[in-house]
Amino acid sequence: MLVKLEYFLTVKSIYNLLKVYMVLFFLCFSTLLFSQKKVIKKFTTTAKKLHISTKGLDDFVFENSDSEFIEIFLYAENPNKQHIVVAEKNSETEIKFKIPIFKSEAVVFRKYITKRLKRARAIVKIPKNMELTVFGESINITSKSYHGDLRIFIEKGMVRLDTIQQNLELKMYAGNLYGVLKKTNLKIVSKVGEIEIDAVFHQKKYQEKEISTTKEVSIITIKGNIFLTHQ
Fold first, then answer.
1. What is the 3-state secondary structure of the chain?
2. pLDDT at res. 138
3. Dist. CA 12–CA 221, nearest whole Å
4. Tell me, what's the pLDDT at 136?
5. Which of 18, 48, 76, 185 lies 20 to 30 Å from 208 when distance is taken between CA atoms?
6. How far apart are CA 94 and CA 223, in angstroms?
7. What is the pTM assigned to this prediction?
8. Is pLDDT above 50 for 11?
9. Does residue 88 register a pLDDT over 50?
10. Is residue 131's pLDDT more than 50?
């Protein structure tokens, strides 16, 4: 009876040890194989309007370029090849990102690393005064005080615009918007979300008129929260 018990304990210990080694193996394997990949594209264009689709991204950052070049940096935690697609249409430049979805037949493999493989972000440097339109679904967007007209249309996400330098049109279903205002004509509609201007809360609608400027900022959202301050 004692011999059988010792045998059972030994087998169980070996089995538990193997489980630990398997977990460690897959974690180490995923770290080595699926480190962040980087794709870079740099080009010039005569177009004055730039359209960017953020489909496939988790985070998107745009900032002013110190040159005449548009520079794109794509970072993705995915073993497959990623692509930055640029096209010229009707005097407009369009940018899209192709990030293939990784699939594995190993259930344990997916359990530990699938979520990491979906992470992707892009940084785009844009010459000043180009009109930029950004489209997206669920996306976090950051602007480093971009000097140019902005149009942003997303379903939901976090939008940080720093100082809003020129005209802005923003529409989103849900999320949070943060920004700093300089002399502007302002119109905000948020049916359900909060509107906070200089730490003062407003309900559903807010407007400002500034006769000394033609700059327009229009923000429309259903469930979005708006947090703005004046410079």
1. CHHHHHHHHHHHHHHHHHHHHHHHHHHHHHHHHCCCEEEEEEECCCCCEEEEECCCCCEEEEEECCCCCEEEEEEECCCCCCEEEEEEECCEEEEEEECCCCCCCCHHHHHHHHHHHCCEEEEEEECCCCEEEEEEEECEEEECCCCCCEEEEEEEEEEEEEEECCCEEEEEEEEEEEEEECCCEEEEEECCCCEEECCEEECCEEEECCCCCCCEEEEEECCCEEEEEEC
2. 96
3. 58
4. 96
5. 48
6. 29
7. 0.78
8. no
9. yes
10. yes
Are 208 and 186 in contact by the 8 Å Cβ rule? The answer is yes
- Both structure tokens of 6: 């010792």
Each residue's pLDDT tens digit, 161-212: 999 999 999 999 999 999 999 999 999 999 999 999 999 999 999 999 999 9
